[in-house]
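REVIEWER CHECKLIST
Item 1: Sequence provided? yes
Item 2: Single chain? yes
Item 3: Sequence as submitted:
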Amino acid sequence: MGLAAIKAIVLDVDGVLTDGGVWWGPDGGEWKRFSFADIMGVTLATKAGLRVALISGEDSALVDRFAAKLKLDDVVKGCKDKAAALRRLAERHHLSLSEICFMGDDINDLGAISIAGFSSAPADSHATVRDQVDFVTRSIGGRGAVRELVDKLLSEHMVDR
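Item 4: Structure as written out by the authors:
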């Protein structure tokens, strides 16, 4: 199955949509940086009819805020088994795993990477992950990697459809 068969993009958050860092303020507040290039990538994907979902190992309100801003309905937080979450998402939306692209950056993403129809990782991902995925972006996490993936998927969709 080619990239044109992809109907959904599922993203890890930390290290993919963010640079993997976190700022903690003296008041206990948590801050993460998101890239407008990646935000535009998510927007372009949804406008093109692709479902976009988030699966995060963290249980952060910032993930909810990102999802609300981009009107993403599928969000799994505090996830310890991303492959199981990916299977549930596929089932809920009547998709086969081969129709799902997953982007992750670290070893806790390998289960989902191994079952997705197409997998990707930012350039600065853990070496084990880069060795397992179908596509490694030139961009690093939180600095346009998601946009690069979306551009690749949408160019394939336009060519093959």
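Item 5: Key structural point noted by reviewer: The two ends are 13 Å apart (CA to CA).
Item 6: Recommendation: ____
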